[in-house]
Amino acid sequence: MSDISSDLVLFNELVEVLINEEEQHPVADRIQADKLYDAIDLSLNETAMVDEEFKAVLKDVIVSTPKTATNLFFNQLFGGRQSKAVLGDLLAVVLNNSMYTYKVAGPQVGIEQEIIRQSCNIIGYGSKSNGTFPTGGSMSNYMALVMGRDAKDSHARTKGMSKPLIIYTSKESHYSNDKNASFAGIGRDNIRYIKSDSVGRMIPSALEEQVKKDIEDGLVPTYVNSTAGTTVLGAFDPINEIADITEKYGIWLHVDGAYCGSVIFSEKYKHLVDGLERSDSFSYNAHKMLGTPLTCSIILVNDKKHLHDSFSNDADYLYQTDGDDFNLGKTSFQCGRRNDALKFWTLWKSVGTKGLEQIVDQQFDLANVALDYIRSNPDYTLYSFDESISICFNYKNIDPTALCTALYENKITVVGFGAFKGQVFVRLVTINANNEKVDILNFFKVMEEFAAKNPNLKKVAEAVQVEA
Question: What share of the chain is helix, strand, coil (3-state, %, to 5)?
């Protein structure tokens, strides 16, 4: 048997171990960070390891790794497992194409471009639109910022910035905006954090007021980051009202939909991103709401010339055949790039656009189950709102940081906490579309039972509040 054949047999055996572990122990045993290297042999050896020992180590690693696909994982903005997407990701690994040229990627280029074309059509971008697959949501936001910078200051790419460029976002937006301002040479001090309303949405009037002030001060308003699904509360900024301002003052508008931008596939919930067609760029992560394996991020641009202007670079040793439309390295940040499109394509191809809609709608249905339960139970305090898949609450005045940590350390469930305007709370994310109503109700059941058995959990009054 060849090495690849025997390794595939081992792979199938290990997958069986993982699936059985997920069923038997949905929450992995926690290894304290300072005990990790004592608990599992992660050392790299001078000589080869015999097969059975190698298999045993791999099983130890699998058993101890946090299980993100189970019905008790609610901690991150991803979760669950879509099997058709997993199939595509495995094929991408075996095929091992890099996506910079048609010469080495062939039909995989067409797969990526078909996803981009269909996505642009869905959101209402025109015939000049295009996009690419960055490494993640942070990189999508960075690419958008660079394009916005270059659109405002055409010499920035060659001579460096010659204008005091200013960018705008809400305090509830993703933390990558801070880093990206530094990377792009704009500077963190040139970010304006716009106030948000009671549910975490950017306030357009506050945005325009700040833009006017910056113009009066001789500065150059350049870029607005609007969010479709804020990290904590899952709020949607009002795109149409923001677009009125960015169009009026000639500012690039990017919509960061990394978390919840996939609502574009839902007839019921796409109104949450009304006005999206007026943006200059939009990004969404299929590895979040749509459940593909990490990572699968897409950035779309209303006019593809901005991708070319900001990221193209000639390389005779690389681009030797076919046209620019098929050599995707001309419009991506990276050169060598793994095929992240295939897993999304196998999912979309197999279930259809209607199937993607069902995946998205299921998450909101699960959120409504949680909201109904909390609202009907006087032991809970609710901090979130309708039409969000981030359910934020506190239970019996128990310190949420202590509760979430204890649930994790005792292998009960994995859920995180968040903060907004100085209030800290448990944040339950219903992003795993494989879950059903019973799984959401079971979360509350196991949490309440654990709290009842641990009456010494700290109360909120004793906890240190974290500023949002």
Answer: 45, 15, 40
